[in-house]
Amino acid sequence: MVESKPLTDESEGLRISDLAVDYPAGRALDSLTFEVPRGASLAVLGPNGAGKTTLLHAIAGLIGTSHGEINPGAGTVALVPQEISVEPMFPITALDVVRMGRYQALGVFGRFRKSDHDLVAKACSQLEIGEFAEMRFGNLSGGQKRRVLLAQVVAQDAGLILLDEPFAGVDVPTVEAIKSLITSWGSSGRTVIVTTHDLESSARDYDFVAAINRKLVAFGPADRTLSEEVLTTTFAGRIARVGDFIVDTAHHHHGAG
Amino acid sequence: MEQAEVDFLTDPFSQEFVVQAAITAALVGVLCAVVGCFVVLRGLALMADSLAHGVLPGVAIAFMITANSDGLEPDRLAITAGALIAGLVTAAGTSAILRRSRLNADTAAAVAFVFMLSLGVVLISRVEGYAVDLNSFLFGDVLASDGSAAITSAVLCTVVLAAVAILYRPLLLLSFDARRAAALGVPVKTIESLLMVLITVAVVAGFLVVGSLLVLGMLLAPPAAGALIARRLPGMMLISAAIAAVSAPLGLLASWHLDLAAGASIVLVAVSAFILIALVRGSRI
């Protein structure tokens, strides 16, 4: 496997200051301020409708902001959406989808050079998509599609990677593959932001945690931030203690209290 | 091959007007087939249909300005320009409705097209002699194609294919997933607008050959057949262009020997190719 090339840019990681986002139905995010150092990972926790996906979309520049600033730091920004609805008959192979990751760097006409082919090959190998690389994307299983989209992000070679609920509905090997990918991104200086409902994993597998419910409830080092009080405020009481576990009753995922 | 069989195939094409019609229809067919791939992949069939009917007011105004007092000999170039402008107005109107309301794309397209269609009918009702030409609006008049029609089609085909080649990557990303395309830096709104212009050009070129009712067949049938076979978009485009190019002479051949409407015969061959491929592919569709 080819090792990820560390980003050489010395600029800082993600900086968000006083961010607000409005939808026609009302304010979706308000007064969000936090910083994530380059190469660190952040888990964003919150109930449905808390603005987790809105936050990722704002950082990726897909939606406008009403107030505040977002500085994504070094490199390009990559976003893997929670779901992607592609017609099964769409004529594109898994490999083509991975190759799309290079389009931003190559522009409209740029030809694939050896370095581009190497990045695509590395992405395919890292996500183990070799055996279905030539299959139609639309015919793949949900987990396989998720792997292909993650491989596209690897090929994109972005500095800031945003994953919207990457663990929802995938099998155990894919979960492990995504976790090891997040670790490898961190060690090569890439900043990773993951929205999740997995409280236990948030406290264990990430450098930082942001608990949000339209506003920032808490932000800090993952192992010291998720107090019972923070979780109760974030999830507005939709948290239950069951034995040694805290359960987000809306999603039935469990986590250490 | 027996001489009679050779004659059967070549007889119609000994006539210059049939050859010109075949060349024009094949060029327009290729244009519609390539642009139609994005219509199929982005699910824009109703939008394309809306454009095909939305051209009517432009055609009517061009007719009123250029036709003589008997309602005959309207200027073909003026009709083309009028259709193009009305098509773009329909596309822009649909976008405006979408931006200012929370209606879905189908409803917005339908509202815009019904407005344009009824405006066209009102204008036509003021023009004497249009009834004769209304038939060619609905069903096209491919056999009226002369040398200049073939040249116009060749120019349009070249320009549109060049535009698709230039915009290939953004169009592929947009068709695959608009949000992902935006995240990869594609100016989604601009590319969507350019795609609408390409579809409008294809619709107008196709409408002159097979009419506003059947142009959808040229936009949808060859790409749909291509999608059943190809694993990649370039393959889909090639297969659909090949089906469109072959449908033109085959349709005219059938039209010649069986005394059928020419434009409708061409579309019928293209749709039959889709049905045949769908049947052969069976459960793999």
Essential attributes:
heterodimer; A: 257 residues; alpha/beta; Rossmann fold; 2 domains; six-stranded mixed sheet; three-stranded antiparallel sheet; 12 strands; globular; disordered N terminus; disordered C terminus; B: 285 residues; mainly alpha; ABC transporter involved in vitamin B12 uptake, BtuC; 14 helices
The N- to C-terminal Cα distance of chain B equals 36 Å
The pLDDT mean of chain A sits at 84
SSE-based structural type of chain B: mainly alpha
Q: How many distinct folded domains of chain A?
A: 2
CATH class of the largest domain in chain A: Alpha Beta
The overall strand count of chain B is: 0
Secondary structure: helix percent of chain B: over 70%
The percentage of residues in β strands of chain A lies in 25-35%
Oligomeric category: heterodimer
Which CATH architecture of the domain at 18-216 in chain B would you pick? Orthogonal Bundle
Radius of gyration of chain A: 18 Å
Biggest β-sheet description of chain B: none
Query: What's the CATH H-level homologous superfamily of the domain at 18-216 in chain B?
Result: ABC transporter involved in vitamin B12 uptake, BtuC
Description:
The complex is a heterodimer of chains A (257) and B (285). With 257 residues, chain A is of the alpha/beta class. Chain A has 2 domains: 161 residues, Rossmann fold (3-Layer(aba) Sandwich), CATH 3.40.50.300; 73 residues, no CATH class. Chain A is built from 9 helices and 12 strands. In chain A, the strands form 3 sheets. A 6-stranded mixed beta sheet of chain A has the order 5-6-7-3-8-9, sandwiched between helices. In chain A, helix 4 runs antiparallel to helix 5. With 285 residues, chain B is mostly helical. Chain B has a domain of 199 residues: ABC transporter involved in vitamin B12 uptake, BtuC. Helices cover 81% and strands 0% of the residues of chain B. Chain B is globular, with a radius of gyration of 19 Å. In chain B, 51% of the residues are buried. The mean pLDDT of chain B is 87. At the A-B interface, strand 5 of A face helix 9, helix 10, helix 12 and helix 13 of B.
